[in-house]
Amino acid sequence: MENKIEEIRKIFLEFFNKKKHKIIKESSLIPYNDSSLLFTNAGMNQFKEYFLGYKKSPYSKIVTIQKCIRIGGKHNDFQNVGFTNRHHTFFEMLGNFSFGDYFKKKAIFYAWELLTDSKWFNLKKKKIFITVYYKDIETYNIWNKIIGIPKKNLILIEDKKNQKYNSDNFWQMSETGPCGPSTEIFYDLGDHLKGDIKNNLGNRFIEIWNIVFIQFNKTLNGELIPLIMKSVDTGMGLERITSILEGVDSNYKIYFFKNIIQEIANLIKIKNLEHNSLKVIADHIRSTIYLIAEGIIPSNEKRGYILRKIIRRAVNHGRILGEKKPFFYQLVKVYIKYINNNEKNFLNKKINLITNIIKNEEEKFNQIIYSGIILLNKELKKSGNNYLTGKQIFYLYDTFGLSLDLIQNICINKKISINKEEFVNYMEIQRQKSKKKNLFNNKNNFYYKNNISKFNGYKNFTTYSKVLDIYIDKTSKNKINLEEQGEIILDITTFYGESGGQKGDIGYLEKDKKNIFQVYDTKKQGNIIIHIGKMILGSLQKNDYLHANIDILHRMMISKNHSATHLLHAVLRKKFGTYVKQKGSLITDKYLRFDFILNNSLKLDDISYIEKKINGYIFENIPIKIDTEEKKEIKNKKNIIALFENKYSSFVRIVNIKKISQELCGGTHVENTGKISLFIITKFLNIANGIKRIHAITHNIALKYIQKQNKNIKYISSLFNTNEDYLIQNILLYKKKFSLLKQNFKELQQYFLLKEESILFKNKILLKDINIIISKIYDINPIFFNVILKKILKKLNKVIIILSTKWGKKIFFIIKTTKNINNKINILDVMKRNLDKNVCNINGCANIVKGSIDLTIDQYYFILSKIRTFILDKVNKLN
Fold first, then answer.
1. Rg (CA), the chain
2. Which of 62, 141, 558, 688 could be a cystine partner for 297, CB 3.0 to 4.6 Å?
3. Range of the structural domain that residue 645 is part of
4. Residue 429 burial (10 A CB sphere; 0-12, 13-18, 19+)
5. Is the distance from CB of 282 to CB of 313 less than 8 angstroms?
6. What pLDDT digit, counting tens, does each position of 64-115 carry?
């Protein structure tokens, strides 16, 4: 079989380039300034602001090939991956776009020509089927009367029952905003496969291209208003079209996947190449590699949680195939072997980092699985009737990450039946809970109308603004009253909306000093800046004019920390090399946090160097200048640091700290380094293999920190009765003395235990072939009971032992019988008969009992004598 995937990429771009489309570089897998998405899931994501009308596209016709992740939110194919022929967590989308240029007729003509012309993909026309939104007669007629698609190959798709504009062929960006009908192109893979184009596609019919005609704006009340600028958004799955052109009936049979699957099978030593688990692993290694390459690290939050889920699902399926050792990390180099040179060069630079992060995560998860399988076996024993409930399965799934597939596999081998339906119900309950909490399920686009907020706060701390909109509980209102919490959108604002790691501003929106809205936080969404807070005096209405006043001190502290972050980034690159790359930051008024790639370990000497260098720059009082340039002008300037390049508009803002740092940044900064005053690193962490994190503070917070540390040093020096200069030497000396005392104490305890063991043996009672040992009250820690027990049980094989000690304010005891007399004397029963439960805390079983007693020694000895008599009597009566 010939590998066609790279050829198809080239053909697609060449075709639309000839049709005067501008080839645009793909965007990051991490959407910029779009909290409605976890990951880029379609080619149109990077053009969202063009579709919304916030910005004008510099090109009316665009073509892209976009990497996508679909595992969360609306598009979630996770559970299907590996069990269908065409679902993936990671895939590439071929897309062509028109912004006010061509519309339905040309979009359809382009698709038909590329798919069917002998110069291009040359697909058989009779095998092509089309779906059209039932009200879109114009599109139906183009396909039928102009292109010549017979009516039997044209299917009208209606709205879902009682849900207007809710159809697979009516596309909506969200519940409001740009939308329009779509037409989808399907291909018939042949009657040897099962499927029906109208009811159940099966494996026979495959959707290859979706063309969306964005022609309406949907309002809150569901009204469709025609857009002045009509647009086209298309998407064709690269893997799907490749499977057709390579003549196979599954994405997993194309040349690329076939080789990956064979390599996985060789590694795991499995012969069945059709096993679904191989497909799961082959898919998941792609998404794992690219997410880590984008700076995502496995964690329990947001995107990191999704990455962790992907890795764990792959590892679970490795176990289903019988592989219990870490294997997934070894597939990084396997994947890179089969991709094109550009991608190969990009990933080879990060191969060690990616491999190490996967290996680390895999090893951790294997430990969790081991614990989970032990618990699973316990649950199976508990059930007793060869049955595992849905609740038990969910617990194992949710707590230990054991997949349903893995649990089923273990249960099949042990001939255990499971309640899968009950498990599904528990999963649905969890999904509904998560949906309510999930940041990415919020209806974030409710702000998108025609509002644009202009930020005017780089140099100004107050501005006169107009209220464009008010939202309370995500619903647009005309007025916000006293004590109500809500969100306000202004036409102009000095409030910086959280972005680029910098926290949003706080402050007040004030009208006539009688109406005040306190702003707790500020967020940015697209071209909208959202002021979040509470009405603390009077009320405000839409179209009111007011003064927007930020908290100046709060802003200044954030600005100091942001400028310090740029210095930190520059010093790290100077110290360790330019491969050091920022992987995230958080800049607040209290501290800054900076994540970065670094393969070396951070030492105390490194921290001292970084602090000294940055404070040196601060004391030089170096000017910080802000320049604005066209993006295309700075592309070849190697000294300028540009992070997440795709997020910048055509004009970029450069923060220039003379001879130290030049970095693209939209955040706020101080005028010179001197205003930072002081820089102290408070914490440095290794948060993943190759990813480090630094916490730091500046200005008066740094001064307070030093003063507190200095006070602590003086206090510790006084405790050690030494000069501060000799504090460390004295601490080390005391530490050495403590180790010696600890060792001496341990030896003394061993001596004491040997002595007590000798006394116990000397005073033991032998009755009916049973050794009875009852100790006096010790004055030792009860943790040594186990040491004494082990020593006795090594020498005696039929014994009853009672040990007691007074420790603190209570008397502790332990009673142990050997297994060969368990059925004759139940120790737990003995203790319950002779002890008052109000003064005794008992736990244990027939074999061993532990507890504590709130009695005087004399009272305890009285009870102990009763227990002794009771046991002797019991033993005496044994046959």
1. 35
2. 688
3. 556-708
4. exposed
5. no
6. 999 999 885 454 567 778 888 888 999 999 999 999 999 999 999 999 999 9
| Same domain assignment for residues 685 and 806 | no
Per-residue DSSP letter, 722 = S
- d(CA 775, CA 847) in angstroms, rounded, equals 18
Residue 428 main-chain phi, psi, to 5 deg: -65, -40
Q: Is 443 left (phi over 0), alpha (psi -120 to 50) or beta?
A: beta
Query: In sequence order, what are the beta bridge partners of 93?
Result: 66, 237
Say yes or no: 644 and 507 in one domain: no
Using an 8 Å Cβ cutoff, are 471 and 486 in contact? yes
Give the C-alpha separation, 306 to 310, whole Å.
6
Q: Which of 518, 550, 582 is the last residue of a domain?
A: 550
Residue 657, strand partner residues: 624, 661
Closest of 591, 569, 457, 476 to residue 524, by C-alpha: 457
Residues 158 and 25 in one domain: yes
Quote the longest CA-to-CA distance of the chain.
Answer: 109
Q: Report the candidate in 559, 811, 132 with the shortest Cα–Cα distance to residue 141.
A: 132
Region at 249 (left for phi over 0; alpha for psi -120 to 50; beta for the rest) = alpha
Angle, helix 302-320 to helix 276-293, in steps of 10 degrees = 150
H helices of 230-324, in order, are 238-245, 255-268, 276-293, 302-320
* Domain co-membership, 66 together with 156: yes
Task: Indicate yes or no: pTM above 0.85.
Answer: no
Please, are residues 585 and 592 in contact by the beta-carbon 8 Å criterion? yes
In whole angstroms, give the CA distance from residue 478 to residue 14: 51
Q: What's the one-letter identity of residue 340?
A: N
> Is 640 inside any structural domain?
yes
Q: Which residues pair with 233 in a beta bridge?
A: 97, 212
| CATH code, 545 | 2.40.30.130
Structural domain includes residue 423: yes
pLDDT given for residue 550 in this prediction: 97
H-state helical runs in 577-662: 604-619, 631-634
The answer to whether residues 130 and 152 touch, using CB atoms and an 8 Å cutoff, is: no
Query: Do β-strands 170-172 and 154-157 pair in parallel, antiparallel, or remain unpaired?
Result: unpaired
Which amino acid is located at 383 in the chain?
S
Rounded distance between C-alpha atoms, residue 304 and residue 291, angstroms: 9
Mind listing the pLDDT tens digit for each residue in 515-542? 999 999 999 887 889 999 999 999 999 9
* Contact of 310 with 316, CB cutoff 8 Å: no
The conformational region for residue 577 under phi > 0 = left, psi -120 to 50 = alpha, else beta, is left
Q: Is residue 254 part of a domain?
A: no
Dihedral over alpha carbons 271, 277, 278, 282 (to 10 degrees): -170
Q: 807-841 burial by CB neighbour count: b if 16+ within 10 A, else e?
A: eeeebbbbbbbbeebeeebbbbebbeebbeeeebe
CA 610, 614, 620: angle at the middle one, nearest 5?
150
Phi, psi (rounded to 5 degrees) for 389: -75, 160
Q: Exposed, middle or buried: residue 461 (CB in 10 Å: 0-12, 13-18, 19+)?
A: middle
Contact 379, 396 (CB under 8 A): yes
pLDDT tens digits, one per residue of 704-743: 999 999 999 999 999 989 888 889 999 999 999 999 998 9
**How far apart are alpha carbons 647 and 53 in whole angstroms?**
17
Phi first, then psi, for residue 17 (nearest 5°) are -65, -40
Per the DSSP assignment, residues forming a β-bridge with 627 are 654
**229: number of Cβ within 10 Å:** 17
